[in-house]
Amino acid sequence: MEPQTITSLEFLAHFCDDHRDDKRFCFILGAGASKNSGIPTGSELASMWCDYLKKEHGDEWLKSWFETEGIDGDKLAEYYPKIYKKRYEYDPKDGYAFLEKLMDGEDRVSPSYGYAVLAWILTREGRKNNIVITTNFDSLTEDALFIYTKKKPLIVGHEALAHFINPNSSRPLIIKIHRDILFSPKNSEGELDDLPSAFVEGLHSILKQATPIIIGYGGNDGTLMGLLEKIEPLGGGMFWCRRETDSAPCRRIQEVVSKHNGRFVTVTGFDELMTQLGNRLEIPRQDGEVEQIASRRANAYREQLNKLLTTSDQQDSETNSAVSNIVERSDKKDWWYFDQLANKQKTLEEKDAVYRTGIEQIPDSAELLGNYAFFLEREKIDMVEAEKYYQMTLKVNPNHVNTICNYAIYLWHNKRDINGAENYFHRAATVDSNDANYLDSYAVFLWKEKRDIVRAEEYFKKGIKSDSNFLNIVGNYANFLRVEKKDIVNADVCYQKALRVDPKDAVLLGNYATFLQIEKKDIVEAEEYYQKALKSDPKHAINLGNYSQFLIEQDKVDQSVSYLKRAFENNKGEDILELELWFYAYAVFYIEYPESREKIEELLNKGVRSLGWNLKGVLEIAKKHGHPDFEKLCEFERLITAKF
Predict the structure, then answer these.
(1) Which of 245, 288, 319, 347 could form a disulfide with 272 if both were Cys (CB 3.0 to 4.6 A apart)?
(2) CB-based contacts of 382, cutoff 8 Å, min separation 6
(3) Which of 559, 554, 599 is nearest to 581 (CA)?
């Protein structure tokens, strides 16, 4: 019988049903649970290794090897052990070194927010749900315990330690059935055919007592799957979590879930499910405790939670509600409380009122004052008040690096005070020369304003070394490589890396769409990414403008006009974007926008330019449609884009 599929809400209700004191759960985690923490999935690694083999031996050799080994190129994850073995057949230690660097090198990954919730559950809830079984080699679970709690887990990272497995231990227990990354992890064909006998008894004992919740596991090995296939049906059943976007589970998985009277659970992702679970369990805000452990870790916690709030699908209201509830579930009304409360408001006036209330209560909070100044500048477009609050912030804390950088950008963009902006960038360097936000902001300033390409790249590289997961700098460096260095290959690598950090960031998605359109000439995929970007943020003016241009160049003029109108409506004082939009209007919508020519001339007279921007495609369409003054349009194009 095909297993029943239930919603995440039904699963949460079952997990939180506390009528039975003896009800226990354990967590089984696969590679999918680690993806949001920056670790590629098995499918991504297999694809990476196949690309290497194809580069080394050629496309025909790879096709022949696939046929010989019976590998389906559309299902590489299922053949991970075989591909890994082939990639590192000459020296298996190279494979261990690669994986170790991936998980614990200079670009060390950090647990995503879902692991913070998991750590709380493992150390509380009567400590009855304190076991994690994983096929992963990473240390995300134990890292989360170290970061967010003061509890030390027992880590069974090798079968030689299996005799320490005690299902009734009060200490969090982490069992790595394919070994820890530091203990020659099992990866290749043959190694993953059977579960080491030392693990069988302990795991069987756990599964008889605790209902497994399986998240991010593909079932592509003979170890854990082999055990689940051999043991008698579990009395408590099992919950196998799957994303809606995943393909149908293979027959082997369906048979295992059916055998154990289990259920498939439809989820958005690991982080989203754990956030919803944490909300149901009324997990309090943990930042106070984290600050006692390390203030830097507290910042990481906030960033992960905020990321969930800003990147969750609009339809994922349960996750958004859970995040909001968790943030507000505290008697401590600190700057973060007011900042999140302001972000929940629907109108600018309501946001403004929340910020002012917060500032009245905690007038010496540089974080709140600085965020309010940023809001006044970027959203309310009140430059006089914005400057006032930037100055107030720096009076409260002259060394608040984030505000120093934001004020430098304010001086640069809004007051065209280039010397003043550079002075503040230098001031930020004296406070923290390794701050990723400073390094990114100054690199962009050097690139776009000073045209100092050499130093700009130097600062980009320094910033990425400081924090390789800081989305802004990775994305901006990708733009730099594309525009200035014409390094399409490495630009693509940077875009992909940034997308792994945050696959829903509207700015990044829009930039990648433009990259696909202009550099890779992949019109189909470019449109897909433009639509993803606008789904993530329907009011993002730059993406609306760029998509309008894209549609014009595809001669879909009738579709373009609505996006152009929305771009105008949502532009918040960005002169460069305004100039580009008026150019599109004059090129193909001069009847609908009769003032467009005059607007272009006004902006050009102010010195506004969009150096290097490619408007040739718009010219072609304008000429095709018989523009009444094509020569003037061409002159505008030269003035707007020419590099002096």
Answers:
(1) 319
(2) 376
(3) 599
DSSP 484: I
Distance, CA of 395 to chain centre: 34
The Cα 178–Cα 158 span in angstroms is 8
CA dist 564 and 544 (Å) reads 7
Burial of 21 (0-12, 13-18, 19+ CB in 10 A): exposed
- Six token digits for residue 384: 């006089």
Is the distance from CB of 227 to CB of 203 less than 8 angstroms?
yes
pLDDT digits (tens, 9 = 90+) for 533-588: 999 999 999 999 999 999 999 999 999 999 999 999 999 878 899 999 999 999 99
Q: Dihedrals φ, ψ of 350, to 5°?
A: -65, -40
The pair phi, psi for residue 625, each rounded to 5°, is -90, 10
Length of the chain: 644
The per-residue pLDDT for range 393-450, each reduced to its tens digit, is 999 999 999 999 999 999 998 888 999 999 999 999 999 898 899 999 999 999 999 9
SS3 percent helix, strand, coil of the chain, rounded to 5, is 65, 5, 30
Distance of alpha carbon 210 from alpha carbon 23, whole angstroms: 7
Copy the structure tokens of residue 200.
Answer: 């069988």
Q: Which helix (H) or strand (E) holds 266?
A: strand 263-267
Calculate the dihedral angle through the C-alpha atoms of 310, 311, 317, 318, rounding to the nearest 10 degrees.
-100
Q: In this structure, are residues 550 and 526 in contact, taking their beta carbons and an 8 Å threshold?
A: yes
Dihedrals phi, psi of 18, to nearest 5 degrees:
-105, 30
Cβ atoms < 10 Å from Cβ of 326 = 23
| Distance (Å, whole) CA 589 – CA 596 | 9
pLDDT band per the 50, 70, 90 thresholds, residue 261: very high
| Residues contacting 481, CB < 8 A, separation 6+ | 487, 490, 491, 494
- For CA atoms 431, 436, 439, 440, the dihedral sign is negative
Instruction: Pick the closest to residue 504 from 158, 272, 283 (CA basis).
Output: 272
Q: Is 477 left (phi over 0), alpha (psi -120 to 50) or beta?
A: alpha
Q: What letters, b where the CB count within 10 A reaches 16 and e where it falls short, cover 612-625?
A: ebebebbbebbeee
Q: Give the whole-angstrom CA distance, residue 472 versus residue 450.
A: 20
Which helix H or strand E contains 4, and what residues bound it?
strand 4-7
Q: Provide the pLDDT for residue 127.
A: 64
What strand order describes the sheet that includes 173-176?
A: 4-7, 263-267, 239-243, 211-215, 25-29, 131-134, 173-176, 154-156
Per-residue model confidence (pLDDT) at position 631: 96
Tell me the pLDDT of the chain averaged across its residues: 88
Question: Of 320, 333, 329, 321, whose CA–CA distance to 286 is shortest?
Answer: 329
**3-class state of residue 6 by DSSP:** strand
Q: What is the pTM of this model?
A: 0.56
Q: Is the dihedral angle over the CA atoms 325, 330, 331, 337 positive or is it negative?
A: negative
